[in-house]
Design goal:
Elements lengths: L13 H14 L16 H12 L15 E4 L5 E4 L4 H9 L2 H5 L1
Antiparallel strand pairs: 1-2
Helix pairs in contact: 1-2
Amino acid sequence: MPSAPLVVDLPADPLATERLGERLGERLRPGDAVALTGQLGAGKTTLVRGLARGLGVDDPDAVASPTYLLVVEHPGSVPLLHADAYLPDKLEAFLADGGLEYLF
């Protein structure tokens, strides 16, 4: 059964945000999903870079915003699928083409 959403305000310091992501990533397991919301520049990608470190992704420094790619796969002991829903039309087309099945 999915757990209730956890709402966290990200630290203003990017290094602290990345460390928070790393600690969270160490606790995630295959199949877990994390949804991030926030304005542009809020630190979402910085948190995901930390998640990647915590998950043991092969190249966590390669994590960048996937806004124009929609989904980026980062291989590792626990692979990371980094998706971006910022462009609603692109997201709608992705889902219509079976994107949800791809993600899960």
